[in-house]
C-alpha cells in the first residue's frame, strides 16, 4: 500500500500518523503549512475540499476525516489487532468509543479552544467557554469512571479507540488534573513508542 499523509504538526493529523506508526506501515508525510495559508491554495483544495488536515492518499485515492482513516485502516490490517473483529464481544464497545470521540468529546473540547484561543479575539463568543467547559467536565467525569478499573477504553488491550480518545484528551491536558484515571491513561498512552514517533515535529528546523 502506498500511503501519503498530508500533515501539519500539532493538529488532528496526529491521529492517523500515530495509527500508521502503531501499524508499522511505511508512509510519506507531505507537510502542509496550514498556519501559513497553504490550506487555501487551489492545489491543496484538489486533495482536501475543505483545505483541512489531515488527508490521506492511499494507492492514488484520497480519504479525508481523521477518525474514518483510523477506523478503516485498523480493519484493513486485522493482524495488528487494533480493532476487535466484527463478531467479537468487544466490537460494540469499540464502535461506541470510536464514534464517541468525534460525536461527543471533540465538539466540546473544540468549542473551548475556539472561543478561548483559536479564533481571532473579535470572533470569540466568551459565553461559549463556560458552557462548553461544563459539558466537557461532565464528559471527563464519565470517562474517568470508565477508566478507573481498566487500562484501555474499548477492550482488554490497546485499540484505535485509544488513539482517538487519547489524542483528543491531550488537547486540554490541564483539564485532566482532577481526574486521576484519565491522567494515568494519558500518561500510559504517551509512553507508547509509536505515539512518541508520531509526536515528533518532522520539520527540518524543529
Ligand atoms: N473532522 C475533520 C476536521 C479536520 C480539521 O478541521 N482540521 C483542522 C486542523 S486540526 C484544520 O485543518 N483546520 C483548518 C481549516 O479547516 O481550515 C477531521 O477529523 O479530519
Explain the overall architecture:
This protein is an alpha+beta fold. It has two domains: 3-82, Glutaredoxin, CATH 3.40.30; 91-192, Glutathione S-transferase Yfyf (Class Pi), Chain A, domain 2 (Up-down Bundle). It is 48% helix and 8% strand. It contains eight helices and four strands. The protein has helices at 14-23, 42-45, 66-76, 91-118, 128-146, 160-169, 180-190, 193-198, and strands spanning 3-7, 28-31, 55-58, 61-64. A four-stranded mixed sheet has the order 2-1-3-4, with helices on one face. Helix 1 links the parallel strand 1 and strand 2. It is globular. The two termini are 29 Å apart. The model has no long low-confidence stretch (mean pLDDT 97). The structure holds glutathione (GSH). Glutathione is lined by residues 11-12, 34, 39, 50-54, 65-67. Glutathione binds next to helix 3.
Entry keywords:
alpha+beta; single chain; Glutaredoxin; Glutathione S-transferase Yfyf (Class Pi), Chain A, domain 2; 8 helices; 8% strand; globular; binds glutathione
